Prior knowledge:
58% of the residues lie in helices and 5% in strands. It has a two-stranded antiparallel sheet with strand order 1-2. It has four helices and two strands. The chain has a domain at 28-85. The relative contact order is 0.10. The model has no long low-confidence stretch (mean pLDDT 80). A hairpin with a 2-residue loop joins strand 1 and strand 2 (34-35). The protein is mainly alpha-helical and 86 residues long. It starts with a helix and ends with a helix. The longest helix has 19 residues, at 67-85.
Amino acid sequence: MKNTKDEVSKWDEAKFAPTNKDTINPDHYKMGGVEVIDAIEAWDLNFRLSNVVKYVARAGKKSTSPLEDLKKAQWYLNREISKVQS
């Protein structure tokens, strides 16, 4: 069975149509037009500091309470401090 150009075009449009839920770049990682990953890469942060920035940036945006994300950021920051002190 051979697809016509119109059939393929309609399939492509449906497959790649924008949705409200972007699982790769969700809204809770976008602040003021800047994506967290772009800032992390521009600043050349290591894994621990990258997670600090990520969790602080999304605190209160992914869920209604920022406390869980702030505690995660604190955990990674404490790990970084321990690494620097050793």
